[in-house]
Amino acid sequence: xxxxxxxxxxxxxxxxxxxxSDSNSLNFPSIYAYRSSTSWEKTVGVIxxxxxxxxxxxxHPDAVIIRPVGEGKPIHHEGFGELVKFAVESISKDASFSxxxxxIGLPYxxxxxxxxxxxxxxxxxxxxxxxxxxxxxxxxLRHMKMSDxxxxxxxxxxxxxxxxxxxxxxHGTSIPQATDFLTQSFGEFAHLDYSIFLxxxxxxxxxxxxxxISNRITLLQGxxxxxxxxxxxxxxxHIPGMVKSLKKKINADIVIPDDPVMSNANxxxxxxxx
Length: 274
Hints:
Number of domains: 2
Strand order of the largest sheet: 3-2-1-9-10
Radius of gyration: 19 Å
CATH architecture of the largest domain: 2-Layer Sandwich
Helix content: 25-40%
Order of helices and strands: EEEEEHEEEHEHEHEEEHHEHEH
């Protein structure tokens, strides 16, 4: 059956891409790869791929492996475009619709030019009827059905700390210490293997990362005229010891979504559906 509107929530992060519609959701690595075909392959020319198949291409001697997103923003436009294209095509492949609406997130400190450029880029790639760019962590706030709160989203490349009042961002920051802080000494793609987080060297850094994040939260809390609930999201929530360490250091009750990895995308989809 044909529908008029097809809504998508899209969170293209440094570590992974999360996309949600009313019928499906998808989460795949933010990796873009390409290589030249060999004489034994049917494909002629350059082979391009993203996500899990891009990770698999790492073992090919001729492969070029790219992380198209840095600190939550596009840094390799061709690769970023391929991530968005794959996400939208995968989530909508069985749907029939007239108009595509996409709500996509950016870090809190993204300026107007960056927001405009992202909107234009995603529109060009997808042909969407409307693309709305919002602070990515408002998705978690909406997913939790809350209007006020401090959302702390610990991603791969940045940690977002944003205060919302009546669903409006009133204060916030993006800090460059996030999951990469824990794994970067083991290689650019070490985070793709979850067992890395069980290593003693990484476990020892978890408390340091929690120290950095909790300090920024405490500084921000001191600038507010009243207490706000604290909502914790992002893939780092699943890192052993992270939540425990933060709870020791933060003077606030911590609320965690049922799916902290997908909560931004889930809430962005809710907004797109309105």
